[in-house]
């Protein structure tokens, strides 16, 4: 397999890392591996907390903040509630290891993030119901006509397909998502700044 010029350059550079850069790279890999285990539920939040505490005590007091930062970078507006909660629990737990704690401020920001996610889901559902009631009458007539011709049509499946393929629905969802994403990203950025301070 042929490597890209950028990959070749990076590989060449790896051999030229200073001892400090090598240690940082090794630590970064260790933290990524730890988070990978956490995300796949191989370890619990308590296990993560204990391991990060050990690494902090052995190496560097900034480790909990580094792990929190990695967790923050994985937050998404449309992630599952379980995945969001998993990250929230870990970030809050890791805050208890730090010398200067901002637990209540972080919790408040997470509540705001959850509020945005809930509002987005509600607006999407309400929008869908409005589109559904607007299209239902039209589709009902088409289904009846198809029934007279001996064709069997799945009303609910057809309704959902028509809504999700309509340009109005796509525009509605795009605008709704963009607005929610902007507020969500702003809150996550505020959280990043809070944790970095």
Summarize the structure in words.
80% of the residues lie in helices and 0% in strands. By secondary structure, it is an all-alpha fold. It has 2 domains: 17-101, no CATH class; 103-197, no CATH class. Helix 4 packs antiparallel against helix 5. The radius of gyration is 24 Å and the shape is elongated.
Secondary structure blueprint with pairings:
Elements: H1 5-14, H2 19-39, H3 45-58, H4 63-73, H5 81-95, H6 103-148, H7 155-165, H8 167-196
Helix pairs in contact: 2-3, 3-5, 4-5, 4-8, 6-7, 6-8
How many strand units?
A: 0
Pairing-aware structural class of the strands and helices? mainly alpha
Number of helical stretches of at least 4 residues: 8
Q: How are helices and strands ordered from N to C?
A: HHHHHHHH
* Rg value: 24 Å
Distance between the termini: 45 Å
Query: Any low-confidence stretches, pLDDT <50, length ≥5?
Result: none
Give the overall silhouette.
Answer: elongated
Q: How much helix, percentage-wise, in residues?
A: over 70%
Average pLDDT reading? 85
The number of domains is 2
Give a quick account of the main beta sheet: strands, pairing sense, barrel closure.
Answer: none
Amount of beta strand:
under 5%
């Amino acid at each position: 397999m042929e490597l890209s010029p950028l990959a070749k350059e990076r590989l060449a550079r790896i051999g030229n890392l200073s001892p400090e850069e090598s240690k940082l790279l090794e630590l970064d890999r260790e933290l990524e591996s730890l988070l990978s285990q956490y995300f796949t539920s191989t370890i619990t939040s308590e296990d993560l907390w204990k391991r990060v505490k050990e690494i902090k005590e052995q190496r560097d007091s900034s480790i909990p903040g580094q792990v929190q930062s990695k967790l923050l970078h994985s937050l998404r507006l449309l992630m599952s509630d379980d995945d969001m909660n998993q990250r929230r629990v870990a970030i809050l737990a890791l805050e208890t290891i730090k010398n200067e704690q901002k637990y209540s401020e972080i919790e408040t920001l997470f509540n705001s993030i959850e509020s945005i996610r809930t509002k987005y889901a509600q607006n999407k559902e309400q929008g869908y119901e409005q589109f559904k009631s607007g299209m239902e009458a039209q589709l009902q007539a088409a289904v009846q006509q198809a029934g007279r011709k001996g064709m069997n049509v799945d009303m609910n499946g057809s309704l959902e397909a028509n809504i999700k393929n309509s340009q109005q629905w796509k525009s509605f969802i795009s605008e709704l998502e963009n607005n929610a994403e902007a507020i969500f990203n702003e809150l996550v950025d505020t959280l990043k700044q809070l944790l970095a301070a």
